[in-house]
């Protein structure tokens, strides 16, 4: 990355701070928890299906995703710029190995000299300046063995970008172009997660079922369960986000 871009992304990360390991305490009944679970479980599934044993998460934060990979029987490492995030990850996923810094740091390469079977990048690409996405993919590919699997998740353009820390959301074509320009990866599979139509239905109905005057809890739970069941493997035209699986060229 360019130095200014690195500084801005690092600043955003520290602003977020991971002062508390919030991923570990998401409310189970929230529809946003369901969408979060959909893309995390999708990434884990694709890694497991690849046959990988050693997995690196880039941008691991407080270690939640690494914890899910560990539960799936994988040997896990994580890297993040947030020292708070890495401290939480080390406490919450003692089976993992963690590094605070950048993929290009010599200390990272010294700690992990062998290439990984798989790398995941979960809801991070949208935080990377567009001019730096290709170099980021190349750095990730440098951590992979030949034929290794790279899985990323990122919001779809179907989902409005109202987050000031998101540079852009993506289409499958945009991801294909980035992968092709990286020169080191080959796209294998793209699927959707979350369902925008059901999410809009949820956002419209919820205030009618749960507001400051009354709460109809049985109907609210039915609505949440209805949307939750439709969060995984959504068609591309109506998905909230994308899950892409790639392999490193031999």
Summarize the structure.
With 250 residues, the protein is α/β, with parallel strands linked by helices. It has helices at 3-16, 31-50, 64-71, 83-92, 106-111, 133-141, 172-182, 196-209, 217-228, and strands spanning 54-58, 75-80, 97-100, 116-122, 144-155, 185-193, 241-248.
Order of helices and strands: HHEHEHEHEHEHEHHE
What would you say the CATH architecture is?
3-Layer(aba) Sandwich
As for the CATH topology, it is Rossmann fold
**Terminal residue distance:** 25 Å
Q: What is the strand arrangement across the widest sheet?
A: 3-2-1-4-5-7-6
Number of helices: 9
Low-confidence stretches: 1-15
Number of domains: 1
CATH homologous superfamily caption: Vaccinia Virus protein VP39
Sketch the major β-sheet.
7 strands, mixed
Overall structural class, as computed from helix and strand content, comes to: alpha/beta
**Helix percent band:** 40-55%
Characterize the quaternary organization of these chains. Answer: single chain
Number of strands: 7
Average pLDDT, rounded to a whole number, is: 88
Query: How much β-strand is present in the residues?
Result: 15-25%
Shape label: globular
